[in-house]
């Protein structure tokens, strides 16, 4: 094919031209390779391997349960507190790992990015995929705990759980694209993300009930708190696993509205993160 014919060929594209997240779907094979690499290297050289995916959330739950549940007395104020607590921990762990992975996805693959062109969005998307894969053992452990306490599965719980996971992935990917793009030139972005992760567990009703926020904060601050996508996601995890066990437990007024607002904010975060990422990705190789 001649050069002029190639330019008019509908299949011809300028090398290096990015379509952002939409372009990822055209490179499914490369995405699968990156997912396999991320999963294989996670526990490379470890004796326990995948067992750590169960040990870590279990140890985290035990620490919070002893301190928050027994010492501070939250165990007496919330029915089936172990299920309530572990539901929130699992949700926040997914967010933390997805955001941490996506923020460093570009810098961690600097050697590859500087040598050959690949759609840059492949790296943060695969990082989120790896976080989701490592989330599954924790979700399985949560399911076992809930079943042990008398939980029964239903379609509404399954849908609520899936939507909660989708909100977390959307929100974390949006933040990861934003901070990951900035992190290439300014490594302070990673430190800022560390601050977000440090507050993530406390900024959502994981270790306490939403009623405590309602009773001790002004109305406008409570509305902001409940509209937080992570608060929405944690409450959806509670609705899926804890609420069916805790009969008569109060639910926030306007929860559906807060859920819609939180989901919209998660999508807006993804949109902004994608815009920033596409604007800066052309300089990744030079800055790395």
TrEMBL record:
Sequence ranges assigned to domain ABC transmembrane type-2 in this UniProt record: 48-280
Any one Gene Ontology cellular component term annotated for this protein: plasma membrane
Localization of this protein: Cell inner membrane; Cell membrane
One Pfam family here: ABC2_membrane
First and last residue of the signal peptide: none
Transmembrane segments: 47-72, 78-95, 121-148, 154-180, 192-211, 255-277
Record family assignment: Belongs to the ABC-2 integral membrane protein family.
Protein name: Transport permease protein
């Amino acid at each position: 094919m001649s050069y002029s014919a190639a330019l008019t060929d509908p299949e011809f594209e300028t090398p290096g031209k990015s379509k952002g997240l939409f372009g990822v779907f055209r490179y499914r094979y490369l995405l699968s390779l990156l997912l396999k690499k991320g999963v294989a290297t996670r526990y490379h050289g470890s004796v326990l391997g995948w067992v750590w995916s169960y040990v870590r959330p279990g140890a985290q739950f035990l620490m919070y349960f002893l301190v928050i549940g027994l010492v501070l007395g939250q165990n007496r104020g919330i029915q089936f507190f172990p299920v309530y607590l572990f539901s929130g921990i699992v949700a926040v762990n997914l967010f933390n790992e997805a955001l941490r992975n996506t923020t460093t996805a570009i810098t961690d693959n600097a050697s590859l990015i500087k040598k050959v062109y690949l759609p840059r969005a492949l790296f943060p998307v695969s990082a989120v995929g790896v976080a989701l894969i490592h989330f599954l053992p924790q979700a399985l452990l949560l399911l076992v705990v809930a079943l042990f306490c008398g939980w029964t599965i239903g379609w509404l719980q399954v849908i609520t759980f899936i939507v909660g996971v989708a909100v977390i992935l959307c929100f974390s990917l949006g933040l990861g694209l934003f901070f990951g793009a900035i992190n290439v030139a300014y490594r302070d972005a990673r430190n800022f993300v560390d601050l977000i992760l440090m507050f993530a567990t406390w900024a959502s009703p994981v270790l306490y009930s939403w009623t405590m926020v309602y009773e001790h904060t002004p109305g406008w601050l409570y509305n902001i708190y409940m509209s937080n996508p992570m608060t929405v996601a944690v409450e959806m995890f509670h609705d899926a696993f804890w609420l069916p066990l805790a009969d008569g437990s109060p639910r926030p007024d306007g929860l559906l509205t807060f859920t819609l607002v939180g989901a919209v904010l998660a999508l807006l975060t993804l949109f902004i993160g994608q815009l920033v990422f596409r604007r800066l990705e052309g300089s990744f190789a030079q800055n790395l």
